[in-house]
Each structure stands twice: as structure tokens, then as C-alpha cells.
Amino acid sequence: MLSNVKKLLALFGLFLITPIVTLCLNWYWQPTVINDFSKVLLWITHTADLKWAVLTCLSLWLILCYVLHLRYFTQCFLLGVILAGAMLLGQGIKSIVKNYMSESRPFVLWIEKKYAIEDHYFYSLPRPERRELINTQLINSNEIPQWLREYWRTETGYAFPSGHTVFATTWAYMIMLLVGFRRHYLLTSMIIGWAVLIELSRLSLGMHHPIDLILGSLLGFWVALITSFCAIRWHIVE
Predict the structure, then answer these.
(1) pLDDT digit string (tens) for 53-92?
(2) Residues identified as active-site
(3) 197: pLDDT strictly greater than 90
(4) Are 227 and 73 in contact (CB under 8 A)?
(5) Distance in angstroms (rounded) separating the CA atoms of residues 8 and 227
(6) Which of 39, 50, 169, 203 is deepest in the core (most CB within 10 A)?
């Protein structure tokens, strides 16, 4: 188990690079960061959105069943239960912390500065009215492209911590633990790279502050550690 913790700590350090660098540079979101690559990052971030996350989970579960050579339905089912539990645990904790901390998203703070609409007022509105406010204020904006405005309208909740980061890093940690880096270098590298791009997308699209990513990665760390312990205890993996 100690070796597993060391692996997770090394990966956690990797996931800290993006938010720590942006903190050191005193970076904050502005429309000037939007470019052609931002649209690609939007597609990547969609893989961790609620409506696509289920498909992402199913795909990764099937991949794990294959690479772990799970021959029996019971093993595959138990692995699915563990993975589903990990996702629900991480997102449940995230939701509780979000509602308690009530931190404004970067794009909401930008709207506050640009259009003199206080973030407290924005979050006091019901979600449908938040979406309408974004639409009415930005419909003629030359700074915010339509595709980003439409995405903002679907993400009007609080920022801290990043649920997308919790989701992606949890998967990366678990695959590192359950599959192993040396045996499946390509698969593990792809999942880790995907998780890093999720982090970048959340910053680039104005959805999160660097500190949101740090806590998201930390939550993923603990959830994956618990998941790994359960998988070993239930003899799904060695």
C-alpha cells in the first residue's frame, strides 16, 4: 500500500504543476486567453461534463476490464461498483464544499468588472435567470465568442473546487494504481495527459481559479486511494 501512496503522490505533484505555475505568475482569466485552441479544450472539457461523464466512465471501465484480464462477470461488476462509488464519492464531496464555500467563477468576476453586475447578485438569482443574464449581457460582445457564451450558460454554479478536475484526476490516479505505469505505458500516459488537459481547459474557459484545481486534485487523490484499497481487499486486482 505504501508503494501505491508514493505513486499517487508523484502523480499529484504532476497535477499541481499547472495551478502552481499560474499562481506564481499571478495569472487571472481574461478574454485575451481565448484562441483557436480554446475550442479544442472545450471539446476535451465536455468529456467530464455531466451529460458525457457517464459515457466516459463506461468506456474507461470496459478498458480496465480488458487490460486487467477480468474473465468473470462478478469481477467486472465489482470493479464497476467500486469505480461508480469513487465517482459518486468525489462528486458528492465536491458539491458539499462548493455550496459551503460559494466561490464565484472567474468569468462571473469578469462580468462583474465589465458590466458592473455584482457576483453576489448573480448568484442570488435562480439558475434560469443567471443563464438569461449571461445571454442578455454578452449577446453583442465581441470579446466572448458565442460557443463560450453558450457554455457559460450551462455552468452557472460555484467554482471551488473543480468537479471536472476531481473527475479526471480520480480516473488518472485509479488507472495508475490498478493498471500500472510500466505495463501499460501508452494507456496510462493518455489518461494522465487527458487529466492535465482538463485542468488547462478549466482555466482557459474561465471556469476555475488555480486553487480550485489544487483541491480537486487532492480530492481525487484520496478517493483513488480508498478505491485502490477496496479493489485489493475484494481481490479484484493484486
Answers:
(1) 999 999 999 998 888 888 788 888 888 888 999 999 999 9
(2) 164, 208
(3) yes
(4) no
(5) 12
(6) 169
